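hey so i finally got around to running the thing on that chain from the lab meeting. sorry it took forever, my laptop kept dying and i had to restart like 3 times. anyway pasting the input first so we r on the same page abt which one it is
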Amino acid sequence: MSSKSISLHYPFYEKDVRTLSAGDIIDISGLVYTGRDRLHKHLAETGVSPVDLQNGAVFHCGPVVLRNGDGSWRIVAAGPTTSIREEPYMASIVETQGVRIVIGKGGLGKKSLEAFARFGCVYVQAVGGAAAVIANSVKKVENVFFLEEFGATEAMWVLEVEKLPGIVAMDSHGRSLYNEIAETSKEALARQGARQAVPVVSG
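ok and heres what got predicted. didnt touch it at all, straight out
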């Protein structure tokens, strides 16, 4: 696993994203866009986004949001949500919207990994179980879309973040840390099973 640490700033261009490798430790600054099931379904089926997602980052997150007295919003918790739920939509969104970074937890599937390699995108594993810590990286809520239609959790929140931390878990070269860990675990279990199957001869 790589030990280099990289700072990325919006917009996230393909040439820069393609220099990233699975295992790279990164932090992200600039605009990111939250999205969950309803937004992904909308984007995949209609192809219409209220913002330009080209060279952007989509954060699989349903933040806890409070309204300030002046009408502005603030994020009090921003934990990553399980990304595999978006697998039916993600490849299409990467292709049609030009998304370069997907942030979430738990990874995505084969179709998404293939789309990352083809179009130049990476998946970043955010820190799970640290919603309040991640919220500290959010400096401002720039805007919100689909609030009335989808509700606060499923809405698209436009966030300005500073040094949002994560690790590249799926890169644009076909590597997935999730697949590699699964394969390593499978091999270890097979070796353990083989050892247990060896008969003990006494005598």
